[in-house]
Structure formats: structure tokens, C-alpha cells
Amino acid sequence: MTKEKRVKPVNVGVIGAGYWGRKVIQEYLNLSQINKDVRLLAVSDVSPNSLALYKDKAHIPFLYSDFKELIEHPDIDAVHICTPNESHFNIGMTALKAGKHVLMEKPIAVTPQHASEMVSFAHFRERILCVGHIYRFNNAIDEARRIIQSKKLGRLFHVRLQWTTYESLMLGRDIIFDLGPHPIDIMNKLLDDWPETVNCNAISCRQTNEEVAYISCEFKDGLSSQVEMSWLLPGKVRDLSIIGSEGSLKIDCLNQKMELYNGNHHTLTLEAVANNTILSEITHFVQNVSRVRDEKAQANLQNSGVLGARVVDVLTAAKESRRNKRAVHVNYNRYD
């Protein structure tokens, strides 16, 4: 009787141990406790204080101040990049050129050119490139998609998303690229479509950079949408409303709760089984890395780099609209 050959664990390195990176690191540690086929091998951050959080107590073998050292580690299979937006292209391309699989936090890049170059290079090198659009793994969003496809809402007319987080100091940050990726991506997840034109307005209230922004989208079938983003409204809101000819659906994306309104104004409260979207996302990533590395099979990604690049196309058009004070047609890079 022969022993079953044990699959080598997928070794992951996380680059960036700031606010979001710490959440990601903790979920990799949690995942490694229940799945021995994944291991968090290394963490990199430029801040000694951030790295000190993991010294001698998190069972992470390697800590680096230079992300290139992490990428050059021969045992690292995949990297999860949680660094500031402007660094994504440089770090992502460095990892792909080293033969690593990449999960990039949103946005994939801050220009369509960089997004397209990364997607094309990942395809050329046969490496996974996916983007941290975690609402693709949100059970309430999945349920909303099923409701839409069942035609319970009838023909769809309008989608509204409110994406707000109270932040007291946002100097130098771009609200459109910080808060805009998830709403745009959610619309594609629900509608299987991308907007044809966008119109954007943004205002500065208390600082020099814009703290409130609105993106209006028009789709080819006549459906419209509006995304409201703010750093000034109290609390954290991630709300989605969908209006159709036969009913409407309101979703609290944070708490994964829904209210379904029919044409007679009757309300049905629905509650999806709330899930840990970060854990679901990294599990999906690791499974695909294993699939490509060990089974020599094609990846089956819910959050591919192509989707991330198209989100950047929409947000870039929104910024152009803001500058020129007019509606802008979205130009999408092609990858087929």
C-alpha cells in the first residue's frame, strides 16, 4: 500500500502591514490553522513598528523591510499586496516578473495603461493576477444577484450605491480611486455589464482634496446608476438599492441584510448567512494557486485582473468627467 503524496503547501507573502494589511495577515494565519495546505511564510513593510507586531509571536518565519527581499524568496508561491494605491504597479510587476501569483488589493493600478500592462504580462507569464474586490465574495451580494436573475424585480431601471466612511484627515488621497472601486465592481457583479458613459462631480469641503463625489452611470439598455462617496458623513455606510418594474431591493452590504419591496409596498426582510469576505477571498486565491501549480489547470477566478482593469477604466473616465465637467464615454481595454 503506497502512501498518498502530500501536496506542498501554498506559501504566501503579504506586502504591506498597515490597517488593511493587518486584517489580511490575521486571516491568513486563521486560514493556516484550519487548512495545512496554506502557510503565511513572510510579511514585508517599510515600518519597523508594523513588523514588530509580528516578531516572535505570530509564527511568521520571515519579516522584511524591503518587499523585494520577500518576492525574491524562492519558496514564496504567491504574494498579497496591501500597499498604497500608487505603489501597486511597481510591486505587482516586480512580483509577476519573479514568477509569483498575485492578489492585489483594489485598485489594481491607478492608470488604465498600468492595469492593462499588468494583466497582459500576467497572461504572458501564465500567472494568476486577481484583485481584492471582496464584495464579490459577499453572501448578500450573491443573493441579490440571484434575485435579479430570477426576475423578481422585473426590468431594472436604477441602481444606487452609498459608500461613505468618516475620515478626519484624508490629505493627498483620491476619493474616486479609494471609495469608487467596490461600487463599480458590485454593479458589474449584479448586472453582468459595464457602464457606457459616466458623469462625475466632486467637491472639497474642509480640505484641499475632494471629500465628496458622485458618479452617475448610463448603461446600454437604458439602466442608470448613481454612486455617492463621502469621507465626511458620520459612520460607515455600504448601502445598495436596486429599483425594478416589479419591486425594489435594499441591501446593507456591511451587515449582509436585505429588504425586498414588491409593487404593493409589502416588505420582506431577508438575511443572508453573513460570511467573512476576506477569508473567502484568500481561500479562493490559494485554491486557484494550488490548482494552477499542482494540477496544471486553468484558474477559475471570480475577481480576475481583467475585471479590476475595467474598474480602473470606469474610474479614469469619471475623473476625466470631473475635470471637463461633462459626461464621458468609457474606453475599455480589450483582453480577448
Task: Describe how the helices and strands are arranged.
Layout: E1 10-15, H1 19-34, E2 38-44, H2 48-52, E3 62-64, H3 67-72, E4 78-81, H4 88-97, E5 101-104, H5 112-125, E6 129-131, H6 139-149, E7 156-165, H7 175-179, H8 181-191, E8 197-203, E9 212-218, E10 224-230, E11 236-244, E12 247-252, E13 257-262, E14 267-271, H9 277-295, H10 305-324, E15 328-329
Parallel strand pairs: 1-2, 1-4, 2-3, 4-5, 5-6, 7-10
Antiparallel strand pairs: 7-11, 8-9, 8-15, 9-10, 11-12, 12-13, 13-14
Question: Explain this structure to me?
Answer:
The mean pLDDT is 94. This protein has helices at 19-34, 48-52, 67-72, 88-97, 112-125, 139-149, 175-179, 181-191, 277-295, 305-324, and strands at residues 10-15, 38-44, 62-64, 78-81, 101-104, 129-131, 156-165, 197-203, 212-218, 224-230, 236-244, 247-252, 257-262, 267-271, 328-329. The strands form two sheets. A nine-stranded mixed beta sheet has the order 14-13-12-11-7-10-9-8-15. Helix 4 packs parallel to helix 5, helix 5 packs antiparallel against helix 10 and helix 6 runs parallel beside helix 8 (181-191). Helices cover 35% and strands 26% of the residues. The protein has 336 residues and is an alpha/beta fold. It folds into two domains: 10-133 and 278-303, 3-Layer(aba) Sandwich (Rossmann fold); 139-274, Dihydrodipicolinate Reductase, domain 2 (2-Layer Sandwich).
